[in-house]
Amino acid sequence: MARWKRFIRNPAAVAGTLICLGLIVVAIFAPAIAPYPPDQMLLGNRHLPPSPGHWMGTDFFGRDILSRIIIGSRITVAVGLIALLAQAAIGIPLGLAAGYFKGRIDMVIMRLTDIFMSFPTILLALAIMAVSGGGFWNLILALSITSWTSFSRLVRSQVLTLTERDFVQSSHALGARDLRTIFRQILPNCIPIIIVHATLVVAVPILAESSLSFLGLGLPPETSSWGAMAATGRAYIREAWWSVTFPGLAIAVVVLGTNLLGDALRDVLDPKM
Predict the structure, then answer these.
(1) What is the pLDDT along the chain (273 residues), one digit of tens a residue?
(2) Contacts of 271 by beta carbon, 8 Å cutoff, 6+ apart
(3) Could you tell me the CA-to-CA distances from 144 to 31, 67, 89, 154, 209 in Å, in that order?
(4) What distances in angstroms separate CA 145 from CA 112, 142, 213, 240, 266, one per listed residue?
(5) DSSP string spanning 195-219?
C-alpha cells in the first residue's frame, strides 16, 4: 500500500495516468465528442486559423483539425495496443523458452533476436511496408515483426534468474512438467516487470506509425492519422502552422503520458527500485 500511496502522490504519475485515461476515453467516445465530421470538406473554409468555431483551425481541404485529431485518437490507441500485444505474443514465449531450456534453444533464439536487433526498427518497418503496401494490418505486422526483441530479452533475463530460485527447484523435485513450471511458477513472477516494460514501450509503435504515415508508407493520407495529418500539413506550414503543430503536439503529449506512467509503474512494481 505504501508504494501505491507514493504513486498517487507523484505528480508525474498522476499526469501520465490522466493523459492515458483521457486518450482512451476520447478514443471510445470520439464520434460523439468530435464537433464536425472528420472528412467534411468545405473548400471555402480552408486554412482557417484557430477560432471559437474551429478551435484548432482547418486544413487545406477545409476539414476541422480538432475533429480529425479526436477521431485519429482511435487509430493511435488501436495501433499502440494491438502492436504491443502482438510484440508480447511473439517475444514472451521466445524469452520463456530461451531462459528455461537454455542450451541450443537459447542460442538459436538469441541469435535470431540479435539479427532483428541489428536492423534499425524504422528502416526494417519501412522495407516491410514498401513490400506489403499500406493498410492498418500491414502496419501492425511491420511493427510487430520489428519490435518483439525487447520482450524476448527482458523475459529471458528474468527467467534465468527465477530458474535458480527455491520454488522452481521444488517444482522440479516434485516432478512437475516443464510447461506447468513455466506457466504456474515462472511466468506469474515475470508479470510485474512485463507490465512496466509494456507501459514504457507502448509509445514506440505510436511513434513508428506516425513516422511511417508521415513518410507516406503508413496509413492512407485520407485517414485521420496524426502522422498523416502532419505530413499533409507540412507543405503549408508557413501559411497554416496549425495544420502541423496540433497533430504534432497530440503525438508528443501521448508519448509523454505513456512514458510518465511507465516510469511511475516501474517505481511501484519493479522490486529492484
Answers:
(1) 666 777 777 788 888 889 989 999 999 998 899 888 888 888 778 888 888 888 898 888 888 899 999 998 988 888 888 988 999 999 999 999 999 888 899 999 999 999 888 888 778 888 888 887 777 888 888 888 888 898 999 999 999 888 888 777 787 777 778 788 888 888 888 888 888 888 888 888 888 888 887 777 777 767 778 888 888 888 888 888 888 889 889 988 988 888 888 888 777 766 555
(2) 192
(3) 28, 29, 9, 16, 12
(4) 12, 5, 18, 37, 26
(5) HHHHHHHTHHHHHHHHHHHHTTSSS
Which DSSP string do the residues of 13-27 spell out, in sequence order?
A: HHHHHHHHHHHHHHH
**Selection from 96, 94, 110 nearest residue 179 by Cα:** 96
DSSP symbols for 86-129: HHHHHHHHHHHHHHHH-HHHHHHHHHHHHHHHTS-HHHHHHHHH
CB 79 within 8 A of CB 258: no
Question: What CA–CA distance (Å, rounded) separates 109 from 114?
Answer: 9
According to DSSP, the residues that pair with 58 across neighbouring strands are 64
DSSP 8-state symbol, 58: B
Q: How far apart are the first and last CA of the chain?
A: 16
Report CA-CA distances (Å) from 26 to 5, 20, 21.
27, 10, 9
